[in-house]
Amino acid sequence: MKIRRAAIIIILFLYTIIPLTLSASNKPTIAVLRFENKSAFDRLDPFEIALPYMLISDLSKISGIQLVERDKIDKLMAETGLAEKDLMDPATMQKTGKALGADIIIIGSFVEQVESGMTVEDMSESDLTINVKVKKVTTGKIFKEIQVVGKSKEFFKLEKEIVQELIKVLNMSLTKDIRKQVDRISTRSLEAVLHFGRGEYLRSVNANLDFGSTYRQAASEKREQILLKAIKEFETCLYLDPQYVDAQYMMILTFRDLAGLFSNIRNKYNPKQAYKIEAFISQFPEDVRCKNISLELAWLYFCIGYGSVLDKEKSDGYYSKSIEQYKRHILKYDDKECNCIRRIVGVLFRKKDYQETVKWHKYLLEHYHKKQNLAKVESFYYIFYCYKKMKKYDKALETLNYMIKNRIRAQPYLYKNNPETCNFSNSDIFKLVKLKGDIYFDMGKYQKTVDEWLKIREEVTELGKSKKNFDNTYYHPFTIPIFWLDLANAYEKLNRREQVMECLEKSVSFPSSNDLTYSAYYRLGQLYEDQGDYKKALSKYKTFQKQVGTNEKVAERIFICKQRLEIIEDDKLANWLEFSPFGRDTENRFAKVSWSRGERGEWVNSIASYKHSIWIAFGGFSKTNTDGKYTSTGDWHTSLYSLNLNSMTEEFIGVPDKFRDNKNSLRIYDIAVDDKEIWLSCGKNGVLRYEHLLKKWTHFTKDNGLIFNTSHCIALSKKKVWCGLGGRGKGAIMAYDREKKKWLLYHHPIATAVGITALALDWNNIWVGNEKGIISYLNTQDSSWKIYSENKYSVIKDICVTEDAVWFACSFDGIKRYNKKEKQWETWDWDDPEVDYSLESKCISVNGNNVWVGENAGVYKLDTLSNRFNKVESRFFKQGNTTLSITACDKFVWFLLDAVNYPRRIMVYAKEGIKRSALKVNKLTSK
Question: Is residue 130 within 8 Å of residue 110, measured between CB atoms?
């Protein structure tokens, strides 16, 4: 206990190395921590949260007090890893107070005395004792203890007694109106309060839930479920007591939390939050919280209007409500006029009421934005842009000229002597000159456009040499590549082809990932082709194809250029190819170039091989025509694809949508195939079996044999189907008896105590790896287990069995090999000097003397003869950082890559090389 207490003190000390400043004013800052239920049972556990909230609610109405927000306490617990009872520990409380920026900490406990034989209905008559301790952070000593005693059903009276005592202790004098607000009882229903406490507990669980960036989507979905449960608790509160003001307010905050989870559900919860705010203001107009939530209501109206842009009438209606609410806020609450007007003009701009937007921004410039600041710059930009939208070009030019003349910009002009120090912001002089040219272009005055932009040509050229760029804010994406593109467009209008080509070349010379810049390559290809320079044209077309992807128009231009240059397609031996079953060329699945973005499989889930065939599971594709061809549609459908490398025939098998999870595709984690059946491991969706002859699907879950629905790996023997199940602290090995048609469970306290992540057949026996790095061996003859490794750190990601050895991909511990003849272990762990993070082994496959290892930084190959690791040439994996799966089939090795900023790809390695002409698909079949 002493060691734990010391650790807590150290953590809080580190948290407060940079001390937070206590209240700058004379107002005491108070933190109210959760109370502790010291009763013999848990009936009043929710009161641990509800009672402090009642105190906070009442104390917040006193202007002479500052309160530490509950969110700040939750954040401290999350960052230090401490529970609230640790924060209340006497040894750490002073550190806690400093970390929270509090002058005073209030803690407490309560005990309910229930007489023997008392029924549940009579428990409201039980005695309730509440003890409160008030402690000064500076001294670390308790300077006031408060105890109140009464009946449980009169909890609200006891809470008010505590508040009155705290007012005396803090030496606060209250006005008559404030006294009236503090004395107002929020609810008399103990059951309603307990439901309130449960709701608040769920909100705190949501605030502290974090799976990290890797599981962000899963965390958001989990949070939504938790917050919806909190909503139900608050709804029960209001059913028991419709006048429970705090429950009404917490409903508003919970809907705000829901709307903030992820962008695609904001439109679902913003209207509900707005409705709750409207009801709150209508029902409790004198509540001090109305001021803040009424301003939030104005913002919500704007958000709902912005989310309804496809319905102009609805959108404009909400924009109007937003404006009226902001105006009402100014009048009723005497808020700062400037901020509210800025928000009003923002809504007017979105509403496309440009005339009113100009009017209000001129009002702001006259009354508030007289000094040089970003708000002033923002107003001038709004005015300019509104004039441009209204096609009042003279007014727009007048605004720009005024800004240039009066140097209204956020950053200084280009420092010619030291361009590296330039940090251009949203109102730089370059942008103003560029915008003037844009106006002339819109007016059709192309020579004036060119003249204007030539004023900054030299500076932009110098800036380009240092590879500096502009930002993209304030309405106009003024980057260096786009500057040259626009100048090229102006020259094109003047029929000055030479200058057009010069500007386009400058545009593509600057690093950019903008699709507009990529289009410059195609335009250059056309111009060079018109000049008869087919070599340069071909180079530009190929670059465009590489950046954007292939399409019929580009492929046609490339073909024509090659014809002109008399280039004959070679058919040399190739070692590396990219594979796509969804390319337009149904005969050539082995692409010479990368797939286009529209042709790649967003969810290439897994790859497996059987005899002479390769099997691939795809998600995001659907059957779109009568011949059974599957194409990339973006729909959430799953399909299996196989290619027989002997006959070069392919097959598509669609997986029925009824097995998928809601709107998402069915994700296949592992595939096992034999002559009769296909078995699929489907993550949280259990296991699927497909019978070739019957064309029949069977779905296995907890309802018909499995003990867990989560399945990540699978393997087939003649008599049994082996499956690794579970995850996050639970797991098992199960086998499906193919003759008896029953699932069998294979127990082992170590090997199956956690999720099974990898398994592989060694004749009829099984090698098993799990998420804690334990390697086990199951003898299927006598069902006995043997533990070979128990490192408890690295996850066993993959297992590959050969005749004389077993290979293991061990996450951050490299790879292991077990020599079956000599019964010895060997480990390889290596670093890559080109990678600034730890390598993580994901998958492994053995092909002859080569051991292929998929890592989070590409693919590495171990030559077992020289015992050396080499990284596979990056040019074959330039888009793929992580290798998810490797499998060998015939003379090929197949790699499933998870590419950065790109969909997943499939690369194929032919050890002896192969001619592309030998890779033509003979026919297409589907099921």
Answer: yes
What are the angstrom distances between the C-alpha of 397 and each of 387, 429, 439, 746? 9, 14, 7, 80
pTM for the model: 0.52
**Is 162 among the domain residues?**
yes
Q: In Å, how far from its chain's centre is CA 450?
A: 44
Tally of domains within the chain:
2
Q: Is the pLDDT of residue 717 over 80?
A: yes
Confidence of residue 716 (pLDDT cuts 50, 70, 90): very high
Alpha-carbon span 252 to 31, nearest angstrom: 23
Size of the chain, expressed as the number of residues it contains: 927
DSSP one-letter code for 920: B
Q: How confident is the model at residue 415 (pLDDT cuts 50, 70, 90)?
A: very low
Residue 914's domain spans which residues?
Answer: 572-603+797-927
Condensed to tens digits (0 to 9), the pLDDT of residues 819-834 reads 999 999 998 887 787 7
- The model's pLDDT over 743-791, given as tens digits with 9 standing for 90+, comes to 888 877 666 667 888 999 998 899 999 888 889 999 888 888 888 876 6
Beta bridge partners of 777: 767, 786
Place of tokens 């640790």: 86
The letter for the amino acid at 153 is K
Domain final residue pick, 151, 176, 201: 176
Which H or E element spans position 268?
Answer: helix 266-283
Residue of 65, 35, 32 whose CA lies nearest to 193: 35
Among residues 461, 469, 536, which one has the least CA distance to residue 506?
461
Choosing from 156, 176, 196, the residue where a domain stops is 176
Q: Starting at the earlier edge strand, list the strands of the sheet with 742-746.
A: 711-716, 720-726, 731-737, 742-746
Token reading at 436 = 């003037």
**CATH number, position 15:** 3.40.50.10610
